[in-house]
Design goal:
There is one protein chain. A four-stranded parallel β-sheet has the order 1-3-5-7, with no helix packed on it. The protein is 0% helix and 60% strand. The protein is built from no helices and eight strands. The termini are far apart. The chain has 67 residues and is an all-beta fold.
């Protein structure tokens, strides 16, 4: 089991607003707003719309905005 901390936005969750994390962020739901963190991963069926201020961005889902 991995002890790596992550900020999870779970499947079925819709999040609007600004979020900041010191851990990698994994989007498995829908985010509309601003995300700041070391990295963001968007899974296959999910959406990140807004601004992401990150060092790494990995997406298999939908992106819209500024990165």
């Amino acid at each position: 089991m991995s002890d790596t901390k992550r900020t999870l936005i779970e499947d079925g969750t819709e999040l609007k607003g600004t979020r900041t994390s010191s851990c990698p962020i994994v989007v498995m739901g829908r985010v509309e707003g601003d995300l700041t963190g070391p990295s963001v991963e968007v899974t296959e069926t999910d959406v990140l719309s807004g601004k992401a201020k990150v060092t790494e961005l990995h997406s298999r889902g939908e992106l819209a905005g500024e990165f």
